[in-house]
């Protein structure tokens, strides 16, 4: 009896999500299965796919300098931009977590870059900030330092994209802010009674209690940063000399500029494996540094 | 947030592309269909022609007006137009092609005519369209292995564009036929010291910053009498010595400060009023196509002029059709489509509607009819075509995969300019990439 009722219930549940499920199966799962197949073919979209076995994967790992350059640029980008962005987000969340008059206004203003940051317009604006006659060089000229074209130099172009990414700390900040508000005031009071300073309170109280949120943000931002596309596509086009040739950009070029769909599918699966591995690594280390209140410690 | 969206975009695009292609493989016999429909169009029943093109809003408006005009004169023909910017046009066309769903009439350019023709997706246009008024040097680009697949719609020429306002102040007079390479270099070196800091005489032609910019070198090789960088049948034809000499020349010019340092050139963004080095006055001379002239003219009216590209033992310039119209092999109304294209290029009324929306009209009578009504920027384009035409090198369409290869060109040229690769290595790399990417 009971089992039947349970099955009825779950059927109803599936029925409710059927429209979403259909979309998920047809538009996500099925294309993914197809792309596994295509990754073993030579497929130009214009001619039928031709089975080539492992040759796409072999070429990527042994004969594609662009793959090496883009992987290097992407890893560098992820490892620099994610910690910097999270640090900025946390710092500002703490500053915003006060009872001050007009706080809502400040929060809106601080969040604003993240609303517009992903847009094409801001990516274009970046050229005017870091270009030869850009804002940065005008500031430098006040101190009689002659600026360069920061976006045009292989050594600094990636840096400008990292700054752009860090500037969009808003969504992480909001999540941190929500996390900070969850921390019960008693802990701070207790810490104050015990005579802990501000820094000590931060490291002994705030940070451990915030660590689940930190893990969440870290995973989310890492996955997102590996897939960074828009800003590189618009600000630098991957140049100069492939110094900002993000992995997603390489994938896009192979697929939609060169019509090597098979090759691009193989690249996509490699990226998936890399992201999965890095995420798994983060979760593996999280035991050591994430503190869950409910589990005790 | 942004990255999630970026990936979402890529994933969706890939998913869409994959699903679309999955549905497209069940079309059996195209030729039978078209034979049947030819009869129906002869009977004078109504015909709907699919037509697609890419370009700016000006071109969209002019073309739509021309379509209306044609439908008014031929009430049995209506159109199903589809138009967009260039950024995604060829991706869309490729997707449609994979789905065997190409419209009857398609605008294609010299970069991929051969691609579509060799894949047997275009109709032979040798008969049914009057091409007697079109310059042979343009018409030749529409042929693949001797068969005419593309009807040129506008003439375009590669030029040296220069800042005439600045030249007048400096007292430099560019002759009608342009300078030779030696003359340009001499003037460049004499002029550079007179320019203020941060200004340079000319563009660094050895360094590409966008797509399909191998022509910056190609004009040099042509002037040395070594031909285009590929043969008409699509074989690699970069002359090693010429290529090395060219890179040495521009490396020296970079050191002397006649062309900008590599990081400045890398920041060049075409047609962006702040970042286009020519538009913002950083350089005085650049190579660009005559069809692009109005973009500069509209930002700084009256400031710029065009000259043929420099010559040496040979002329360096060439003309090319800005665009073609082609007819899809699967078209059910090929005769109606040809009739329309014939009208589109040869009819004076059509010419007056279209003006220079696709470059200088290819038909002489249409052009003569149109010229008195045009503005100075349009007249400058017609004038430069007249000056380039007599000794222009005969252009042939680009081989399949050429566009993708030029992306490699861009990266390699930057590696050389930033001293990360020697020109000798670059030459080998270009050859290697050609063998990999360009397939015939």
TrEMBL record, chain B:
InterPro entries: Bact_solute-bd_prot1, SBP. The keyword Transmembrane does not apply. Residues 1-22 form the signal peptide. This is Extracellular solute-binding protein. It comes from the Bacteria. SUPFAM superfamilies: Periplasmic binding protein-like II. Keywords: Signal.
């Amino acid at each position: 009896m009971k089992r039947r009722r349970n099955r009825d219930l779950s059927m109803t549940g599936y029925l409710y999500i059927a429209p979403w499920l259909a979309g998920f199966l047809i538009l996500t799962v099925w294309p993914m299965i197809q792309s596994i197949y295509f990754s073993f073919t030579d497929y130009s979209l214009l001619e039928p796919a031709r089975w080539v076995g492992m040759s796409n994967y072999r070429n990527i790992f042994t004969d594609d300098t662009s793959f090496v350059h883009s992987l290097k640029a992407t890893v560098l980008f992820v490892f620099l931009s994610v910690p910097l962005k999270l640090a900025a987000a946390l710092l500002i969340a703490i500053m915003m977590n006060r009872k001050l008059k007009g706080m809502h206004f400040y929060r809106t203003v601080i969040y604003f870059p993240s609303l517009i940051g992903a847009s094409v317009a801001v990516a274009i604006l970046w050229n005017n900030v870091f270009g030869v006659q850009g804002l940065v060089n005008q500031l430098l000229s006040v101190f009689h330092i002659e600026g360069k074209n920061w976006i045009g130099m292989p050594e600094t172009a990636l840096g400008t994209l990292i700054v752009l990414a860090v500037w969009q700390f808003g969504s992480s900040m909001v999540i941190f802010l929500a996390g900070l508000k969850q921390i019960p005031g008693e802990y701070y009071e207790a810490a104050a009674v015990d005579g802990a300073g501000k820094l000590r309170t931060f490291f002994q109280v705030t940070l451990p209690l915030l660590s689940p949120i930190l893990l969440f943000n870290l995973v989310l931002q890492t996955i997102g940063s590996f897939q960074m596309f828009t800003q590189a596509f618009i600000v630098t086009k991957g140049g100069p000399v492939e110094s900002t040739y993000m992995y997603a950009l390489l994938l896009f070029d192979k697929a939609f500029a060169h019509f090597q769909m098979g090759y691009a599918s193989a690249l996509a699966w490699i990226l998936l494996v890399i992201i999965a591995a890095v995420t798994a690594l983060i979760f593996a280390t999280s035991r050591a540094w994430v503190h869950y209140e409910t589990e005790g410690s | 947030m942004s990255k999630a969206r970026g990936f979402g975009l890529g994933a969706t695009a890939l998913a869409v592309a994959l699903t679309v292609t999955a549905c497209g493989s069940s079309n059996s016999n195209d030729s039978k269909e078209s034979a049947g429909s030819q009869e129906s169009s002869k009977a004078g029943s109504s015909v709907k022609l699919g037509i697609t093109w890419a370009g700016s809003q000006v071109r969209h408006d002019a073309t739509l007006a021309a379509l209306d005009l044609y439908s008014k004169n031929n009430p049995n023909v209506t159109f199903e137009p589809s138009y967009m910017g260039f950024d995604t046009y060829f991706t869309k066309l490729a997707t449609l092609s994979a789905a065997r769903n190409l419209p009857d009439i398609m605008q294609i350019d010299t970069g991929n005519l051969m691609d579509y023709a060799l894949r047997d997706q275009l109709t032979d246009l040798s008969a049914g369209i009057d091409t007697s008024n079109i310059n042979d040097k343009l018409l030749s680009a529409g042929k693949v292995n001797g068969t005419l697949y593309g009807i040129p719609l506008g003439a375009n020429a590669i030029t040296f564009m220069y800042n005439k306002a600045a030249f007048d102040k400096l007292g430099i007079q560019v002759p009608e036929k342009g300078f030779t390479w030696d003359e340009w270099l001499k003037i460049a070196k004499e002029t550079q010291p007179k320019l203020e800091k941060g200004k340079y005489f000319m563009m660094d032609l050895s360094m590409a910053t966008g797509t399909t910019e191998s022509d910056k070198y190609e004009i040099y090789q042509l002037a040395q009498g070594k031909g285009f960088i590929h043969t008409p049948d699509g074989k690699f034809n970069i002359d090693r010595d010429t290529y090395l000499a060219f890179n040495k020349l521009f490396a020296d010019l970079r050191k002397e400060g006649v062309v900008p340092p590599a990081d400045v050139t890398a920041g060049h963004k075409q047609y962006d009023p702040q970042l286009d080095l020519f538009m913002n006055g950083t350089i005085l001379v650049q190579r660009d196509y005559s069809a692009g002239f109005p973009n500069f003219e509209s930002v700084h009216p009256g400031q710029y002029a065009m000259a043929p590209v420099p010559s040496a033992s040979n002329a360096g310039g060439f003309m090319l059709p800005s665009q073609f119209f082609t007819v899809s092999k699967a078209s059910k109304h090929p005769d109606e489509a040809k009739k329309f294209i014939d009208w589109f290029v040869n009819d004076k009324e059509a010419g007056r509607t279209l003006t220079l929306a696709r470059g200088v009209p290819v038909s002489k009578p249409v052009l003569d009819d149109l010229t008195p009504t045009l503005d100075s920027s349009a007249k400058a384009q017609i004038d430069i075509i007249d000056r380039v035409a007599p000794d222009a090198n005969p252009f042939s369409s680009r081989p399949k995969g050429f566009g993708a290869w030029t992306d490699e060109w861009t990266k390699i040229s930057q590696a050389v300019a930033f001293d990360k690769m020697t020109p000798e290595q670059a030459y080998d790399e270009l050859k290697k990439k050609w063998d990999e990417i360009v397939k015939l």
